[in-house]
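Chapter summary example.
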Amino acid sequence: MMEMALLQKVQEQELMPPPASSAIPTARCSQGAASFAQERIWLDEMIHHDPLISPAMHNFVLPLVIKHGSMSIERIRSTIVAVLKQHDILRTAIYFDEN
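The structure predicted for these 99 residues follows.
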């Protein structure tokens, strides 16, 4: 009963945030040595996932069930963009060279 009241309130008042801009600001690029933990993760990935056999080693299956209503791809996209804007670490890329 309480869930239905909350759902109705959300629908009536449009409590959902407006869609975020698709542009994600990026920080300055800098180079540095990988930490020991980063090197260990990289080594573990190389040992357990051969990139020649399985190039998509960073795919994750996230189960999702929509019991009522419909799913808005635009709201999901804007939510992901909002999270990425707030957390710089999620926009971090690490590239390893021969050293």
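To summarize the output: Residues 61-99 form one domain.
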